Amino acid sequence: MTENELSSIVIREAIEIHKALGPGLLEKVYVECLFYRLIKLDLRIEKEKPIPVIFEEVKMDCGYRADLIVENKLIIEAKSIDLQLQSNFV
């Protein structure tokens, strides 16, 4: 499966999750739901995978973690915002 096909699936599932749950929850909730939905589709998913930073010969384990990695091709980094904070910017 190509990266475009995978991203279409992920976006579709994320929209369905958002329609069902609505806005304003913690991003962990959305990640867990997306993980569950993608597993149900028989996709290979890694959750909270450490991502090292490599600069020249130095490998640094700086605490970066990908929320989800889909089929070893697509990194998902979920974000959610506080709706009260959002209204201050509109």
Task: Characterise this structure.
By secondary structure, the protein is an alpha+beta fold. It has one domain (3-89). 44% of the residues lie in helices and 23% in strands. It is built from three helices and five strands. It has helices spanning 3-21, 27-40, 83-89; strands at residues 45-50, 53-55, 58-60, 65-70, 74-76. The strands form two sheets. It has a three-stranded antiparallel β-sheet. A two-stranded antiparallel ribbon has the order 2-3. The radius of gyration is 15 Å and the shape is globular. The mean pLDDT is 90.
In what order do the strands lie side by side in the largest sheet? 1-4-5
> How much strand content do the residues show?
15-25%
Unreliable residue runs: none
What is the end-to-end distance?
A: 39 Å
Q: Given the helix and strand composition, which structural class is it?
A: alpha+beta
Quick one: biggest sheet?
3 strands, antiparallel
How many separate helices?
3
Gyration radius, rounded: 15 Å
Average pLDDT, all residues: 90
Please trace the helix and strand order, writing H or E for each element.
HHEEEEEH
Shape: globular
Helix fraction by DSSP (H/I, runs of at least 4): 40-55%
Number of domains: 1
What's the β-strand tally?
5
